[in-house]
Amino acid sequence: MERRCRVSGTLNLLIGLAMGLNLLALASSRLPTLIGAVAVQGVVLGVMPLLMEHQFDWIVALVALGTMAVKGFVIPGLLRRAMRTASVDREVEPSIGFVASLLLGSGGTIAAVALSRALPLLPEHAGSLLVPGSIASVLTGFVLLIGRSKAISQVCGYLVLENGIYLFGLLLIHATPLLVEAGILLDVTVGIFVTGIIVDRIQRAFDSLDTRKLNVLRE
Amino acid sequence: MKPLLLILLPLAGAVLAAVWPGERTRPWLMPVFGLMHTVLAFWLLFDPPVVAPGAWLAFDPLARAVLPAVSLLFLVCAAYGVSYLRVRSERPNRVFVAMMLAVLGLLSAGHQARHLGLLWIATEGVTLAAVPLLHFNGTARAIEATWKYLLVGGTGIALSLLGSFCLSYASLHSGGSGDLTFVALAHQGAGLSRPWVLSAWVLLLVGYGTKMGLAPMHTWKPDAYGEAPGIVGAILAGGVTTVAFTAVLRIRAVVSAAGEGAIADRTLLAIGLFSMLVAALFLLGTRDFKRMLAYSSVEHMGILSVGAALGGAGVWAALFHVWSNSLTKGALFLSAGNINRAAGGRTMDQVRGMSIIAPQSAAIFVAGMFAVTACPPFGPFFSELRVVRAAFDAGRSGAAAMFLGCMLFAFFGLTRLVFAIVDGRPRPASSITSRRFPENASVVMPPLILLAFSLWLGLATPTVLLDAWTGAVAQLYLAP
Q1: How close is the nearest chain B Cα to the Cα of A6, in Å?
Q2: Could you tell me which residues come within 8 angstroms of residue A56 by beta carbon, excluding any fewer than 6 positions away?
Q3: Per-residue pLDDT tens over the stretch A183-200
Q4: Sorting pLDDT into bands at 50, 70 and 90, what band is B98?
Q5: DSSP structure string for B293-321
Q6: Does A171 touch chain B (CB under 8 A)?
Q7: In b/e form, how buried is each residue of B405-443, taking b as 16+ CB within 10 angstroms?
Q8: Residue B21: is the preceding peptide bond cis (ω within 30°)?
Q9: B226, B234 in Cβ contact below 8 A?
Q10: Which residue, among A124, A213, A217, would best test binding to B if mutated, counting the most B CBs under 10 Å from its CB?
């Protein structure tokens, strides 16, 4: 019992760290910092399944390792490469200012904690910050998606959003069949590759990754 | 075995297309595999298999009521696709053909999915497989549309995953064993935790509603339909949206089993009417006839959503409308593609006098426009009439009045734009482009066939279809 308390304490610490990284992502004014924040968040998320297991499990370990590798290194690496080859300048260029984003993000975090009070949890998840962490990350992802104008920063926003959903998925780690999890992981990976290809096409067609230039189609 | 073949055959076709060497012969894979798929789907329509209750994938009554329509639409579009890819031989078609077939296979999986997670995987797969189809033209505008589709669609899909997780947690919370088939979830019924079910419903409706293109999540639709080739628009509007609709129906059944059916119906009604209103207003303003089709599709998704909110009779009418909308929209998109190529433009400022330049396509376009605005005797008239009647029977006369009002405005908007491009004297530039893309039987027959099907659905709805829709309603409303 004591061990479990300690473990969930560590888990909550990591979730808190991930929530802090959300705010860092909102506040970063340079693309490399933003990508870095998302990468660290990916690694933090990858560690979590290991803490939730009471004994060592190969499959969970593999999932954790895969998550860390993909979210922490592969995708950030791809984004950094896209940034270099496109030689975009490193400013984030927000359409929602940094202070406003931070206010939205921290307000969202408070709202997430308040909201998750209304949602009943299973006894083994009691006291865990998974639900507020998940909602806060989803909201942060939205702010980044809406409030940033470069394709790369929008992809970062999408990743934060997905990290939020991953946090929620940890509640179900024992319940969902492996097949479903594998399918979801596959879809997410393919999705990111497709996004990468499109980012590349945008770069070639518009000679820029500024999505504000994508404004021909409107009513 | 046959239900599984519906999924595996097109996927095998996609792999074959990816390795097929001949650029000129590759498009033929689409009608070949499409024909096999249609034969299988109609075989299963006439001879429905027995469904094991716990099956993850099965040709159940709901799949039986919808999937053959998608299959038929794909077959006709595939036949059109062969001649389309021949006139567009300057673009490589390997990815296009492979992804078209992959979309068909994943659509079949989505329609037949009876498991929450599997449904999400299939829908996400369809979304991703459609991406290369959208930027087939490779123009800057096509890439812009693809990016918007990817961002909006990706967010929608992510939210529906979150909603699926919420529903799974609701099931776990009430002592579920982690069995996420819709049958098992509905069986838990009122035991499902209420706050979680409601959050799941909101997220899933927003998520799958984005895929359907319900307002206000429809923003990707005009761009994507406007920039994609007509054949892709037809598949998206008639196939991809229906898989999201069946997903909504399946989830509504679970929410209703959990005792929240009234809330679910109210949200469906509100979002449906709002979509119709938004679509009607934009239809009055748009000057681009391919974007017009997108707004018309938003309107029809609204009609489906309103139908789904009105109980058994409404769902029956909505399933009827899935058929009439898919086939009629197919005819419109294909003929719009012909007009677009012949005229070399898409707005009413660039296009005039199509009844002289491309008389047959223009005639089909006008007839299709009357069909889609619910003029008798085409299919949509009868299915929309049933929706209205279901609304009056359910005591929702206010909703019915708004429904009819929106349809009237949509009719004004559509006729204004359609006659502006059909009538008048052709622009000189169009006379030159139209010589490059002359009308011939291979591009005129497919939309004509779809229009004929729509007419047939209206005049003499086959009893097997009536039976299939009734069966699907029974599955959704009488399941334990």
Answers
A1: 24
A2: none
A3: 676 667 667 767 777 777
A4: very high
A5: HHHHHHHHHHHHHHHHTSHHHHHHHHHHH
A6: yes
A7: ebbebbbebbebbbebbbeeebbeebeebbeebebeeeb
A8: no
A9: no
A10: A217
A198:B155 CB<8 A: no
Residue B115: helix, strand or coil by DSSP?
strand
Answer yes or no: are the C-beta atoms of B422 and B364 closer than 8 Å. no
How far is residue B30 from each of residues A171, B9, B76, B97, B182, measured CA to CA in Å?
43, 11, 10, 7, 33
Q: A187 vs chain B: nearest CA distance in angstroms?
A: 7
Q: Residue A209's pLDDT is what?
A: 72
What is the reported pLDDT for B394?
92
> If you count residue pairs, one on A and one on B, with CB atoms under 8 Å apart, how many are there?
117
pLDDT in tens, A63-115: 788 888 888 888 888 888 878 877 777 777 788 889 999 999 999 999 999 98
Quick: pLDDT tens for B224-258. Answer: 999 999 999 999 999 999 999 999 999 999 999 99
A103 lies in some domain: yes
In a domain, A218, yes or no: no
Name the token pair of B23. 């650029």
Tell me how far apart the alpha carbons of residues B128 and B132 are, in angstroms, rounded to a whole number. Answer: 8
> A117-142 burial by CB neighbour count: b if 16+ within 10 A, else e?
eebebeeebeebbbbbbbbbbbbbbb
- Which range has the worst mean pLDDT, A70-79, A139-148, A167-176, B300-309? A167-176
Query: Residue B75 and residue B63: Cα distance in Å, rounded?
Result: 18
Does position B57 have pLDDT exceeding 50, yes or no?
yes
Q: Are A132 and A109 in contact (CB under 8 A)?
A: yes
- What is the extent of the structural domain holding A201? 2-211
pLDDT of residue B464: 95
Looking at the complex, does the CB of residue A114 fall below 8 Å from at least one CB of chain B?
no
Residues of A in contact with B147 (CB under 8 A): 151, 198, 202, 211, 214
How far is it, in rounded angstroms, from Cα A82 to Cα A76?
A: 10
Instruction: Work out the number of other CB atoms within 10 angstroms of the CB of residue A176.
Output: 20
pLDDT tier for residue A1 given thresholds of 50, 70 and 90: very low
Contacts of B19 (CB under 8 A, 6+ apart): none
In-domain check, residue A29: yes
Which residues of chain B does A219 touch, with a Cβ-Cβ cutoff of 8 Å? 222, 282, 285-286, 291
Number of domains in chain A: 1
pLDDT at residue B199 tops 90:
yes
Residue where the block lists tokens 């070949």: B32
| Closest alpha carbon to A158 in A142, A169, A174, A179 | A142
Give yes or no for a cis peptide into B216 (omega within 30° of 0).
yes
* pLDDT > 80? residue A174: no
Whether residues A171 and B165 touch (CB distance < 8 A) is answered with yes
Confidence band of A179 (pLDDT split at 50, 70, 90): low
Chain centroid to CA B321: 11
Q: What is the pLDDT of residue A186?
A: 64
CB contact under 8 A, A119 and B196: yes
Segment B161-177 mean pLDDT: 87
Q: How far is B295 from chain A (nearest CA, A)?
A: 11
- The answer to whether the Cβ–Cβ distance between B285 and A172 falls below 8 Å is no
The domain limits of chain B are 2-478
- Residue A194 contacts B, CB cutoff 8 Å: yes
